[in-house]
Amino acid sequence: MAGDLPRLGPRVWWVYLAVDTPKTVGQLAADAGIAPGSIRGHLRKLERAGLVRMSAEPGAEPMWTQARELDPATRYRIVGRVERGRLRQPDDVIATRAPAPPLVVAVAPAGCIRPVSRPWSLRAQDRTAR
Length: 130
Description:
Radius of gyration: 17 Å
Strand content: 5-15%
Largest sheet: 2 strands, antiparallel
Number of helices: 4
């Protein structure tokens, strides 16, 4: 990554990619399938690094958005880091690569069905064991 960017984990970078449009902590937690407290911790790390900012309207829930746009090469590396962390990109992020292949199912002679390939997801119940 660029020398001025902090070393952050794939989940933190996932949150950064997800706030390319303003979102609340609740929206991010629902998209990611993880606890709102974890999302808040990731947002605090990104805020300390100057990558996201919070905008608070009186009487409304705070919205988070990207404070700094990254150059395309750096963004590409971050997307790769998220993918290598076996996380799916947030739904509204423009893909930098071809979409993940659909679920392919092989039928064993005994009638057992087993998944052959599956797109990665941030949600633990969607992960496949290697």
